[in-house]
Amino acid sequence: SSVSWKDLLPANNSVRAGLNHISETPNINSTAKPAPTFNVNPTTKLAPTPSSEPELIVLVRNLDQLQAAIQAGIATLYCEFEDPRAYKEAMQMKPGGREKAESRRQKAEVQNAHSPSHPLTTIFVAPPRITKPGETWILEQVRSCNADGYLIRNYDQLQFFKDDRCIGDFSLNVANPLTASYFKQEFGLERLTASYDLNIHQLEDLLTHCPNDWLEVTIHQHMPMFHMEHCVFCAFLSEGTDYTNCGRPCEKHEVKLRDRIGTEHILKADAGCRNTVFNGTAQTGAESIKRLLKLGQRQFRIEFVNESSNQVLKTIQQYQNLLQGTISGTQLWKELKLQSQLGVTRGTIKEG
């Protein structure tokens, strides 16, 4: 038999009467927004409609990595730097980066028409993962670089960058088509990053219920294990108490945390002095690429943390070969494991 929500009310008649009155009396002063409607049906699968070649998107965390990615011919780049002031220099590293934006676009369009192997470089920059009250100045600092767009991590950033080109990062936790439709409709995001909590079967389910151009999938990364308010750099490498007197040791030192089995996990700080610990072992979903391509998925992201320029180049080249079909996913992770010593594993995108 079915159970109504009213069956769960207290047995006391006076309490029931009061709750019934509350539940049945409309609030004429309510200013709540009407529930959004969605332009996807979570129960309807969409046929794959691939209309373009697979694209490799690269996230870098320093200028040397950025230079290597540009050299490798990557068209779409994400920058996540500890110091947002460095984003201006990143924008200047674009081909023609010191020219005015309009003339740069016109010049690139002419070049692309004759040289499709050298696409127009687009750089999105990332604000810190957390935005607290009083930290709008950090977002202003990020915007001052005049990037091509912004990688959005939270709701404050959705509002702050609402008039700019934006892509939703994994922290928006897009794990189902209703969530994807909400962010696309309400905020007009160009693309969304699929949640990191999904295994391959759950990811396939998400992709088959969303248009092909809505999502990007991260297939290579050092998984962020936790994000914290406590700053290890300030606590152990400084006599200070906060950013006003710590001397910014995070800009001078590299810190790793060794676990009980000897793996060294990478520690990074952000502009708000919060720290993220990244898994010391990079993870890959390379063996699932064929399945994702068959579903029409075309945008794939790889992320770097502390890799050298040479490691960045080698890794990008291997993934380019993978998307071109010249090597298999198994060959890729074995090759990287042996040559670049990145410690690539089968990762979070695995058989469910």
Short recap of the structure:
This protein has 352 residues and is of the alpha/beta class.
Summarize the structure in words.
With 352 residues, this protein is of the alpha/beta class. It contains 12 helices and 13 strands. The strands form 2 sheets. It has an 8-stranded parallel β-barrel with strand order 1-2-3-4-5-6-7-13. It has a 4-stranded antiparallel beta sheet with strand order 8-11-10-9, with no helix packed on it. Helix 11 packs antiparallel against helix 12 (329-339). The protein is globular and about 55 Å long. The relative contact order is 0.14.
Q: Compute the number of structural domains.
A: 2
- SSE topology string: HEHEHHEHEHEHEHEEHEEEEHEHH
Helix content: 25-40%
Which CATH-level-2 architecture of the largest domain? Alpha-Beta Barrel
Query: Order of strands across the biggest sheet?
Result: 1-2-3-4-5-6-7-13
Strand percentage lies at 15-25%
Could you tell me the mean pLDDT? 81
The number of distinct β-strands equals 13
Q: Provide a count of the helices.
A: 12
Distance between the termini: 34 Å
As for the CATH topology of the largest domain, it is TIM Barrel
CATH superfamily grouping of the largest domain: Aldolase class I
CATH class of the largest domain: Alpha Beta
- Outline type: globular
**Structural class, from helix and strand content?**
alpha/beta
Main sheet characteristics: 8 strands, parallel, barrel
Radius of gyration: 23 Å
Low-confidence segments: 1-9, 15-26, 110-118, 338-347
